[in-house]
User: What shape does this take?
Amino acid sequence: MGKARKKLISKYYGPAQIIYGRLFYLVKHLHNKWHTYKSLRRSIQLDEGSTIGIHHSTMFNLNNSKIIVRNGSLKIGIDFGYFDGGVYDSRKDNCRIYMVNSTLEIDGNVSLFPGVVISAINAKVTIKDGTIINGGSHIIALKDIEIGQNCLFAQGVMVRDNDGHKLSTEISEEVNMGIEGIRIGNHCWLGQKSMVLKGTELKDNVIVAAGAVVTKSVAANNLVAGIPAKVIKENVKWSA
Ligand SMILES: CC(C)(COP(=O)(O)OP(=O)(O)OC[C@H]1O[C@@H](n2cnc3c(N)ncnc32)[C@H](O)[C@@H]1OP(=O)(O)O)[C@@H](O)C(=O)NCCC(=O)NCCS
Assistant: This one.
């Protein structure tokens, strides 16, 4: 190769790589957006008068699944709490909705704040009117998770109806992965970074303290705290 040609290539190689890289990512981005748009059109079912608002950074992976909104609106990654300003932000904390053979059913007005993840495989997730799920909360369903009306999830709450892996002990054979549905009643308040595990039912007006791990069902109007969560107050009331 001639000296002049080599010089020309070395001069333009860097900028050409940058332009090529940018173009590649632009095409990939548009391609992803187009696929998301197509799968959303197929998967979202809005009843008459119901709406859905989706922050553009939201990531969807919907495989043979449906998002059904009735009697209200679903907002994904749009609202954020007064104290959330600098913590969870849709520009860096995308909401992610991953569903395979599953249904997300919204009945009424529901808001998922930035960074909320809903992951459902062969499962149904139901969220009812007036419920707000704060930034960074995760709902991981392999069966059935129902969340009642006017519930408030603080930041980083985790609700999972499955253990994710099989387990065995010295005295017991390997058992199947634990999967049992979860039901959260109306007007429950789940404190920051609390967890609700498989097979539990929270009756109406339950408060779960920050960092608690709920492994057993909780009767109405009780406040539970700790790991595992125990009742520390009865007949409690809370307001937003
Ligand atoms: C649930 C909560 C509001 C209860 O507050 P409270 O009624 O004032 O509770 P108290 O301070 O009277 O505590 C009662 C007892 O429970 C214990 N306790 C309180 N919160 C606890 C927690 N998160 N984990 C374990 N124990 C807890 C206290 O140490 C106290 O124990 P003691 O009786 O041995 O002294 C509070 O514990 C909490 O979790 N606050 C954070 C809520 C949150 O995440 N907000 C985010 C905005 S949505």
About this structure: The CA atoms of residues 99 and 120 lie 5 Å apart.
